[in-house]
Design brief:
heterodimer; A: alpha+beta; 4-stranded antiparallel β-sheet; B: 5-stranded antiparallel β-sheet
Chain lengths: 338, 692
């Protein structure tokens, strides 16, 4: 198919951009962004593939041969192929028609990693849904065949390059099943979005005096079971830190917090990295957030614009990551990745 | 992002193993009908490449490199050149196509290559029709289309089991047939305004335009159908069934030939040439006059097999109703080109027995000369003998009866295996061997007639025909080939004389099988021929049915043309204007497509439940009659216990059946599933026997 579209190379880039913009606006109207899209005749486009055009070439040649040699069976074969082609149009259309696509979330990753946008595809009874190929422009393709009915979950890969909200926009769903002669496709905008936090990177942490001491202390105290206080268990607390003895005595679930972790030592501070630029700082901060999260330690976050107090648990980690990821973008949205 | 999909390199993906297997199978299927048509050079190269591909795939050899591929192409061209002496022309072209197709398969690496192979294979399928348009061939090629389509599906859905692809392909082709029929019937048949002719000769058995002793006897062994004659009303009697093909009027002492008309015509004056050309219209006028005066005539259609010869067959005296059929001065019909395909035409014939002959041009000296010409010498004894008989008999008519009586009364025999004759073959036959097939008698009689000054000639064609038990038509076989004589008598014109009938009246009355007497001698070399068992009524009917289908095929499918299409339009829609054609085509297509669409939408693909699950549901339905309904989250065993507690009289059966179901579903013991099948059967029996 590349060869067919290589014509594009001869179109000046400005005109190409203009066409793309126009088509984009048109698509926006025709298939408006929505969390759920039902594929119907308005949303499915269909056109022969290069193989399909080659096939039509064969059909044409057979027709001429049949007329020339007055050979009815060659003509009949030619008509059979025409008929197969027409049926293939239906079959390929039916392969998409009636699918209901729904956004199903994505797990945030660091910049540079592959994130997966999950799409829930509901296969209504009379849709075939075989050999579907999904991809976001410029990204890898995923091939999926649906079960005969019911729901399937498909993950569309995306390599996130930049921190912030990743909104890839429309993705492309296409199929050439069954004969590979016809391609039906759609551009679907499920308003996909996923948080991408800065790429974790360990930069040497320069200690301001108080912060530094706290940090040193905390490392020194590692492994020491010096429980400072018990607080009521919150979801996301590590099972390691649950006071199981108390639980066994019937006093309910409590989480142990330790002396060392509650001090200033676990503050991840913007000022810890005075010599590197903003993005590198954010990367370093992400690294430490993840480190503490992995060790199930409490930590706090200090940015020029905001501060998150010491805490632990999944919600806290997520908030910290989100703050780091969105630092410096007023509307919380970065440009798309392409 | 643009409207057109941005192309990823989907087509460059390498081929899955499943797909390759499909390609190889479809290759074998597609090549098979070509094997007998091509020389060993080409076929063995194709076979070699195929084996190579299979083995290299099993052993994980690398695909052939550039050098090897170049060598292959060179050897392909040389194989074709060795086989056909050329690399252009249809047969060589098809040979090259086969090789190209095979080489492409050999080097197929990506999905795009596979598509290429499939596209080529449709071509190869089509070329098989260039050589043969038989019904069986068409069926086989339809099957090939299913296999090819299955290969296509497997390219685009590589994970599926081959059965799945085959099934989808089968339904796809099945769904395509109605549209194909509509297109076939209603797409206007354009006459080719160009024409590339295809020299499709491969020696077929049949009559030829010359005859030496033994030629027609050779056809006596051939049980293929030469043509069929479908009569509108009554069928002529057996003795009237003389199908003229052409006249042989040039004798060289041993061989009879169809004289070259061109040479004779050129020697005529301009006026005479024009008069000769008018002969055709004179004949037509005479024919129509006789027919309108109420003479008995037959109207019939001839459905003939490909003969590779231009001439046609008809009863005397014939008048062609189809266009583009010529008649020569021997009253035989022909078309311009040799018939490499089955051919259908319509003829009327006057019943010949009571007629004086049609205008025959015998007033021209050159015609007389041609029909009296004999070699200057040879067969002296026969000439002498004929002279004597003529003197004794007194008139030409009496002479003819005398000769026929001689054949009838002396010890002449009618046989398929006459002794070989040397020079002076007429003398030898007439006085020594006296055993001959029809050509011996016709040839000898014509010789004798000419030697006493009666214009005479040999006519070859077929005599006889078997009436089909299915329809009002005659089947004429190759072994019905016959030769007889024609003499020209003043006031009567050309008169048919069949000396064979004098020797063996059964040949004309009943056919060659009876004339030969011993049925074991008939078709002795083809023990599988159904004709040998023609006395068994079932076999006879079967044979006729097969031929009837073939006749319909030739008439309705192979012979379908622009004229028949126009007729069909008139019959169905009362008009054949462009507007009607377009309306019918569009209407037919769109309604069919709509039907297919509706069918697709409403034929919901319900996933079929495994049998034990269906049986269990049936069991549950039975229980629900008694008011026991299984809860959604209730386990099978728990449900069974509930039923057992509440109605102890059913407890035994319910518990037993449930236990079996649980065992089948959750404890599959055998890996091969044999025991499972038996258990499911047992389960089925128990559920059926269970009553509430």
């Amino acid at each position: 198919m590349n060869t067919l579209l290589s014509v594009k190379r001869f179109i000046p880039s400005r005109i190409d951009a203009l066409i793309r913009k126009r088509v984009g606006i048109w698509l926006e109207k025709r298939i408006p962004p929505s969390e759920q899209v039902v594929l119907d005749h308005r949303r499915i486009f269909i056109f022969p593939t290069l193989n399909g055009l080659m096939f039509l070439g064969v059909v044409m040649t057979l027709f001429l041969a049949g007329i020339n040699y007055q050979n009815n069976l060659i003509l009949a074969l030619c008509f059979l192929l025409v008929s197969l082609f027409l049926n293939a149009i239906f079959a390929t259309y039916r392969n998409l028609s009636g699918l209901i696509l729904e956004r199903a979330g994505a797990i945030p990753v660091g910049a540079g990693e592959t994130l997966c946008f999950h799409i829930k595809i509901n296969n209504t009874n009379n849709t075939v849904g075989q050999s579907l190929r999904l991809h976001i422009p410029g990204q890898h393709t995923v091939v999926a065949s649906l079960d005969s009915s019911g729901q399937s979950l498909v993950a569309i890969p995306f390599i996130a390059q930049q921190r912030g909200w990743c909104k890839p926009g429309r993705f492309h769903l296409q199929t050439v099943y069954p004969l590979g002669l016809i391609r039906s496709w759609s551009w679907i905008d499920l308003q996909l979005s996923c948080l991408v936090y800065p790429k974790p990177f360990d930069s040497p942490r320069q200690q301001s005096s108080d912060v530094g001491q706290g940090y040193q202390q905390s490392t020194a105290q590692e492994g020491v079971e010096d429980v400072a206080e018990l607080r009521v268990y919150r979801q996301g607390d590590s099972p390691k830190h649950v006071d199981w003895k108390a639980f066994a005595k019937g006093r309910g679930l409590h989480t142990k917090t330790y002396q060392g972790y509650s001090g200033d030592s676990n503050w991840i501070d913007w000022l810890n990295w005075p010599n590197i630029n903003q993005e590198q700082r954010l990367s370093a901060m992400t690294y430490w957030i993840l480190t503490y999260a992995q060790k199930q330690e409490a930590f706090g976050l200090r940015l020029p614009s905001s501060e998150i107090p010491l805490d632990c648990g999944d919600a806290h980690v997520f908030l910290a990551l989100k703050t780091v990821a969105l630092f410096g973008c007023s509307d919380g949205v970065f440009a798309k990745d392409d | 992002m643009g409207f057109l999909p941005k192309m990823t390199n989907d087509d460059a993906v390498s081929l899955p193993k499943n797909t390759l297997a499909f390609l190889i199978v479809s290759h074998i299927v597609v090549i098979t009908p070509h094997i007998s048509k091509h020389s060993y050079w080409v076929i063995s190269l194709v076979g070699l490449c195929l084996v190579w591909r299979i083995v290299s795939n099993m052993r994980h050899w690398p695909l052939p490199g550039k050098g090897v591929r170049f060598l292959l192409v060179i050897s392909g061209f040389s194989a074709v050149y060795l086989a056909y002496g050329t690399v252009i022309g249809p047969l060589a072209g098809v040979g090259l196509l086969l090789l190209a197709y095979t080489f492409k398969l050999l080097e197929a690496k990506t999905v795009r290559d596979a598509h290429m192979v499939v596209t080529l294979s449709y071509f190869v399928v089509a070329t098989a029709f260039l050589f043969d348009q038989a019904f069986s061939k068409a069926l086989y090629l339809l099957f090939s289309c299913v296999v090819i389509s299955a290969a296509l599906i497997s390219i685009n859905q590589p994970s599926t089991h081959w059965k799945g692809s085959s099934k989808s392909a089968f339904y796809l082709v099945l769904k395509s047939l109605p549209i194909m029929v509509v297109l076939f019937l209603f797409v206007p048949r354009i006459e080719a305004f160009w024409s590339i002719q295809f020299d499709n000769h491969h020696a077929r058995m049949g009559l030829s335009d010359e005859m030496s002793p033994g030629d027609i006897a050779r056809l006596g062994e051939n049980d293929s159908v030469a043509f069929r004659a479908k009569f509108e009303r009554n069928i002529p009697l057996p003795a009237e069934r003389y199908w003229r093909a052409l006249v042989l009027d040039d004798f060289d002492g041993r061989r009879w030939r169809h004289a070259d008309r061109g040479v004779e015509l050129r020697s005529l004056s301009k006026k005479d040439q024009d008069a000769t050309k008018r002969q055709g219209s004179e004949y037509n006028a005479w024919f129509l006059n006789r027919r309108d005066q109420g003479d008995n005539y037959f109207r019939y259609k001839i459905i003939m097999e490909a003969s590779d010869k231009p001439w046609l067959f008809a009863l005397d005296w014939a008048h062609p109703l189809s266009a583009n059929i010529n008649m020569d001065d021997g009253f035989s019909l022909s078309v311009a080109k040799p018939l490499t395909e089955p051919f259908v035409y319509q003829v009327e014939s006057l019943s010949s027995t009571t007629l004086t002959g049609p205008p025959d041009g015998m007033h021209w000296q050159y015609q007389r000369k041609r029909n009296l010409k004999l070699p200057a010498s040879g067969n002296e004894r026969s000439r002498q003998w004929a002279e004597n008989v003529r003197k004794e008999s007194g008139s030409d008519e009496a002479f003819i009866s005398q000769i026929l009586a001689h054949f009838r009364e002396q010890k002449f025999y009618y046989t398929l295996r006459p002794p070989l004759l040397g020079t002076d073959s007429i003398d030898q036959f007439l006085f020594t061997t006296r055993r001959g097939f029809c050509e011996h008698y016709a040839s000898t009689f014509t010789f004798l007639a000419r030697s006493v000054g009666i214009p005479a000639r040999v006519v070859v064609g077929y005599q006889g025909g078997e009436q089909s038990s299915l329809d009002n038509y005659l089947l004429v076989y190759q072994f019905d080939a016959h030769a007889w004589a024609e003499v020209w008598l003043p006031k009567r014109g050309w008169v048919r004389v069949d000396p064979t009938a004098a020797v063996s009246p059964a040949r004309v009355e009943k056919g060659i099988e009876d004339a030969l007497g011993d049925s074991r001698r008939f078709l002795a070399n083809s023990p599988l021929s159904l004709l040998r068992y023609r006395d068994i009524p079932g076999v006879r009917r079967l044979r006729h049915s097969i031929d009837y289908l073939r006749m319909l095929w030739i008439q309705k499918v192979v012979g379908y043309n622009g004229r028949l299409q126009t007729d069909l339009f008139y019959k169905l829609f009362g008009s054949s204007s462009t507007k009607t054609v377009m309306l019918v085509l569009l209407g037919g297509l769109s309604s069919l497509l709509f039907l297919i669409f509706i069918f697709d939408v409403y034929s919901k693909r319900k996933p079929r439940m495994p049998p034990e699950q269906r049986l269990y549901l049936r069991f549950c339905r039975k229980l629900s009659k008694r008011g026991f309904n299984k809860g959604v989250s209730e386990g099978e065993t728990a449900f069974a216990h509930r039923v057992a507690v509440n109605s102890p009289e059913m407890a035994e059966g319910v518990l037993r059946i449930t236990a079996l179901y649980v065992q089948i579903n959750y404890r599959p013991l055998d890996r091969d599933g044999v025991g499972r099948k038996q258990r499911v059967n047992q389960f089925r029996k128990q559920v059926s026997a269970f009553s509430v």
